[in-house]
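--- STAGE predict ---
source: upstream dedup step, 1 unique chain passed
mode: sequence only
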Amino acid sequence: MRQDLTLVLGGTGKTGRRVAERLWARGVPTRLGSRAAGPPFDWDDRATWAPALAGVGRAYVSYYPDLAVPGARDAVGALAEQAVAAGVGRLVLLSGRGEEEAKRAERALAGAGAEWTVVRASWFAQNFDEGYLLEPIIDGGVALPVGDVPEPFIDADDIADVAVAALTEDGHAGEVYEVTGPRALTFAEAIDEIGRASGRRLRFEQVPMEAYGIAMAEAGVPAEIIGLMRYLFTEVLDGRNVATADGVRRALGREPRDFRDFARRAAATGVWSAPVGARRGATERWRPPWGWPSGAGWSAASSSPSPAS
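--- STAGE serialize ---
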């Protein structure tokens, strides 16, 4: 029996939502894979996997909260094997750049027997306007445990375009597309770009990792997410990912979107508007972002600063 459905795991996240929107726009029958979908999908409840995979021919796989966490490789491998047994013929995996743990998950998915493509992404530009960095930017500044290490931030729209091409077109099987923006910026430079685009005076401060971890714990952030953030900031952001990559060009035949263009588009929506008091001329209040939400507010890739959704 022919299976036409495309399953988009993480369908409400930064990349999954964009992938689903593009598939719907093309008229591709698409099922969202999330806890709130019908049928629901939950990485932590394997009883939800079979109903979500029923009738599916292709799947976009993004793992929550990140492929670097313990158990991610086993979960992705098990899901891929179950998907192939259910008749899924093509799998596209969202992976993280510079993470050895993510590469293990890539190999597990590739070994399941379906056509596969890996989209190995750098740090999401959308973490600045759709993620945990939004609130501190609105408040006037960002404090992070990272210094002058540049990162070639990738626009989530580029990730979605590559993923949709791999899901719907021939010629992408067996490819690992390492996707980045066209240039690398430090986090301070990225905040400066956002400030210029939004007409805001924003500040960036580097803080010690220990103080950062303590503040997150006091804000109620789960221990496993604190551990993930420690790993990302102290190991992955050690300079290994400074170089740009050609994945967007190889997959789509065009250059990736620049961070400056992302900042201008986001600023035009008003997402970074100053608090009311500041708009009336009061001095902008700046504080480290210790009031971040816990639970579902932390995600990569969702993620999260790492690509995970």
